[in-house]
Amino acid sequence: MQHLDPLAAHALLQEKPEAMLIDCRTEIEHMYVGHPVGAEHVAWQEAPDWEVDPEFVEKVKWLVRNDLSRPLLIICRSGHRSIMAGEALEAAGFVNVINVLEGFEGPLDDDYHRGTLGGWRCRGLPWYQS
Fold first, then answer.
1. Is the full-model pTM beyond 0.85?
2. What's the average model confidence in pLDDT over 2-25?
3. Per-residue DSSP letters for the chain?
4. CATH topology of domain 2-45+52-128
């Protein structure tokens, strides 16, 4: 799995129109916290049980019409869930999986807040909030 910071991930999406950005956060995070413009939402897990969605890989396969070579960038809140989701995609045969480091909100700062030290939104990349 390749790892790119948000700026490099955004640049790749601009350079390769066939690349797809998958937001693997929960529906609530995707809708209310915001999400990158153009991201497809496929939750890796959901509240309240936080079980991994057994259909996650199949949902992504459907989105890419079973093109397992299509570049897939995976983003979550901070860049950790997306690694697990990316590993599952690679295990299913996807060959061009890219984790977006820092995620959408970035790491915790000294006050335990996100969004101040990194992430898609902090880097000023295009995003949308429902």
1. yes
2. 98
3. -EEE-HHHHHHHHHH-TT-EEEE-S-HHIIIII-EETTPEE--SB-TTT--B-TTHHHHHHHHTTT-TTS-EEEE-SSSSHHHHHHHHHHHTT-S-EEEETTTTT----TTS-SSSS-STTTTT--EE--
4. Oxidized Rhodanese; domain 1 (3.40.250)
